[in-house]
Design a protein that fits this description.
Blueprint: E1 2-3, E2 8-13, E3 16-21, H1 32-47, E4 53-58, E5 63-65, H2 78-97, E6 103-107, E7 110-112, H3 114-121, E8 124-128, E9 132-134, H4 148-156, H5 158-167, E10 170-172, H6 173-179, E11 184-186, H7 191-203, H8 207-219, H9 227-238, H10 242-252
Length: about 260
Amino acid sequence: MSMPYENILSERNDGITTITINRPNKLNALNKATINELNQAFKVADKDKHTKVIIITGSGEKAFVAGADISEFAHFDVKEGGKLAAKGQELLFDYIENLSTPVIAAVNGFALGGGLELAMACHFRIASDNAKMGLPETSLGVIPGYGGTQRLPQLVGKGRAMEMVMTAGMIDAETAKAYGLVNHVTTQDELIALCEKIAGKIMRNSTVAIKGAIKAINANYKDGVDGYKEEIKQFGKCFGTDDFTEGTTAFLEKRKAEFPGT
């Protein structure tokens, strides 16, 4: 099953929706149209009861997303710049982070600027061994505006984030793994297969419980929100679900659970 888009491809197979940014001649750069289409594709996949996991990747072998489309905003003023960041965060980056369906970034090459910010908004990241990651915005006289200054320190620590942003430099896949920025590194040929293998493990578990877990984990990073209280709330909610009944019954009956997803 696939939907018609101009800048992306979206395809569902065996419970996994794979969204591919398809602008290889532009190294999959994020422009306004692509951000809008991605928002649409994520919305559709999240509402689709047959989609249990979403994988996002870039087309071709060079880039996941090589950055934002600079030609679109080079002439912007202060107000327009602020609006660009706010709108992008709302439509795509914060939207993905808070999605109830797990999102895996398959980083298949350059993930720079908005591309790394997109990968960081996903629930976790897996990289091909040719991947290069960085936030080069300060070399253009601007700072990351799609959540990069917030999510990078959360993932790699403040000192490393400061260095990466200030130097505008790139790190390779193995360094990204050592930093905790990506969970696994594999060959380009095996990247999607590894993402699908991990997605398969996720799909064996309760979608309702996973939704609650995403909310609880994210709460730890939200100002003014007590993550422990959110965990208690989400934990309690599980007890009212069919998945909990099935999961505990299956465990006690020493059989594999067949979660209804309710």
